[in-house]
């Protein structure tokens, strides 16, 4: 069990001690999609949902989620983010939306979980706002695209 960083010698869950790690610039990017009916996608695009502007609301929700990741994911370190954001693009091929999110900090641990949480919550927000038009919407493909910084170096999805 010594190779598992979130377990102590007795097998109990613990937060990893990052106190001795160097502070470096770190950034991570994630993505995900939500498939929906053409009707729902058109209503979102025309800003005609009864709940309001799904795109603006999802962007705000994603940033808020990135900032609160440590409250949602056990043993995740609270971070002081220097940047976080959400981009949302309409994709008629799905049909639906493609969501990309990012998070950045200068610190001792990475921001992958913050980027993934931002994307996940943005997608859930779109679902919530458009579910009256299409309860069959499907969220999928939430994944890390890239991370930069830290001891393990840079990584990018092929």
How does this structure look, described?
- By secondary structure, the protein is an alpha+beta fold.
- The chain has a single domain, classed as Molybdopterin cofactor biosynthesis C (MoaC) domain (Alpha-Beta Plaits, 2-Layer Sandwich), CATH 3.30.70.640.
- Helix content is about 30%, strand content about 30%.
- It contains 4 helices and 5 strands; from the N terminus they run E-H-H-H-E-E-H-E-E.
- A 5-stranded antiparallel β-sheet has the order 2-3-1-4-5.
- Strand 2 and strand 3 form a beta hairpin.
- Helix 2 (about 55-65) packs antiparallel against helix 4.
- The mean pLDDT is about 95.
Give a quick summary of the entry.
With 158 residues, this protein is of the alpha+beta class.
Q: Could you give the distance between the termini?
A: 31 Å
Helix percent band:
25-40%
The number of domains is: 1
Largest β sheet strand count, sense and barrel closure: 5 strands, antiparallel
CATH level 3 topology: Alpha-Beta Plaits
Secondary-structure-derived class: alpha+beta
Give the name of the CATH superfamily: Molybdopterin cofactor biosynthesis C (MoaC) domain
User: Taking all residues together, what is the mean pLDDT?
Assistant: 93
Entry keywords:
158 residues, alpha+beta, Alpha-Beta Plaits, five-stranded antiparallel beta sheet, 28% helix
